[in-house]
């Protein structure tokens, strides 16, 4: 059946992208899995991409997924304390402004420095991508995500693979793919973090007050009363 995550479903013609498709005898196309390589920190990705450069696989199509903290180059958004929200607002054009860097994503994705070609292409790291993005005035964050479609190897921090919310927001589908976790003894901590949530006493009190209003006005009491009880017990 059709697969969602590899390039045979990305609208490319199979002749142009033989790396991900192989013909089965009955004419169906098989998908070659991607390799998702998870590391603990962004810094380790830089080290690993340097190592990749030194191997015979330096010209393999790749991408590096990282947060906007590392890859946003918009002069206002990148200096904001809440880059994610501000980026989304920009893309939705909420304040009448849009992000010109986002509209230049294709320029970055299609640039020869990121397109695998014999003897020319080299494995790259986040700094290379950001440097090229600045030069082309194109968004490295969304370009890296776009490049995932045709990539054979995808580098990212652990939590992109372990945290279901991040997986979802980054459109990562691990079904039938190869997953490599570097320094896997850190996985337990990362898994714990991804299902943990920090909340202050002030936030709990504010939530309780809002729930009081809901209950007192008979708004979906059966849902709000148990929540209020949880807030009270935690406080």
TrEMBL record:
PROSITE patterns linked: HELICASE_ATP_BIND_2
InterPro entries: DinG/Rad3-like, Helic_SF1/SF2_ATP-bd_DinG/Rad3, Helicase-like_DEXD_c2, P-loop_NTPase, RAD3-like_helicase_DEAD
Domain of life: Eukaryota
One Gene Ontology CC term in the entry: nucleus
Coiled coil regions in record: none
GO molecular function: ATP binding; DNA binding; DNA helicase activity; hydrolase activity, acting on acid anhydrides, in phosphorus-containing anhydrides
Keywords associated with the record: ATP-binding, Hydrolase, Nucleotide-binding
Domain Helicase ATP-binding: start-end pairs: 1-231
Basic and acidic residues: bias regions: 12-25
Biological process annotations from GO: double-strand break repair involved in meiotic recombination; nucleotide-excision repair
Region of interest (Disordered), residue spans: 1-25
Gene3D superfamilies from the UniProt entry: P-loop containing nucleotide triphosphate hydrolases
PANTHER family the UniProt entry points to: DNA REPAIR DEAD HELICASE RAD3/XP-D SUBFAMILY MEMBER, FANCONI ANEMIA GROUP J PROTEIN
Protein name as annotated: FANCJ protein
Gene designation per UniProt: Brip1
């Amino acid at each position: 059946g059709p697969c969602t995550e590899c390039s045979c479903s990305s609208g490319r013609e199979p002749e142009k992208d033989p790396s991900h498709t192989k013909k089965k005898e009955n004419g169906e196309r098989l998908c070659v899995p991607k390799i998702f390589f998870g590391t603990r920190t962004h810094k380790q990705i830089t080290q690993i991409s340097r190592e990749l450069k030194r191997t015979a696989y330096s010209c393999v199509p790749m991408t590096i997924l990282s947060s906007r903290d590392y890859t946003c180059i918009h002069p206002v958004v990148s200096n904001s304390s809440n880059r994610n929200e501000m980026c989304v607002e920009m893309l939705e054009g909420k304040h009448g402004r849009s992000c010109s860097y986002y509209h230049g994503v294709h320029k970055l994705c299609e640039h020869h420095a990121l397109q695998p070609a014999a003897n020319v292409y080299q494995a790259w790291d986040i700094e290379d991508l950001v440097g090229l993005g600045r030069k082309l005035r194109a968004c490295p964050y969304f370009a890296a995500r776009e490049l995932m479609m045709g990539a054979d190897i995808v580098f990212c921090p652990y939590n992109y693979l372990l945290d279901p919310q991040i997986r979802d927001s980054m459109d990562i589908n691990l079904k039938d793919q190869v997953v490599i976790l570097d320094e896997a003894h850190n996985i337990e901590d990362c898994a714990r973090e991804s299902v943990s949530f920090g909340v202050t006493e002030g936030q709990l009190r504010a939530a309780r007050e809002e729930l009081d209003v809901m209950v007192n006005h008979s708004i979906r009491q059966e849902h709000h009363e148990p929540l209020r009880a949880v807030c009270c017990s935690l406080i």
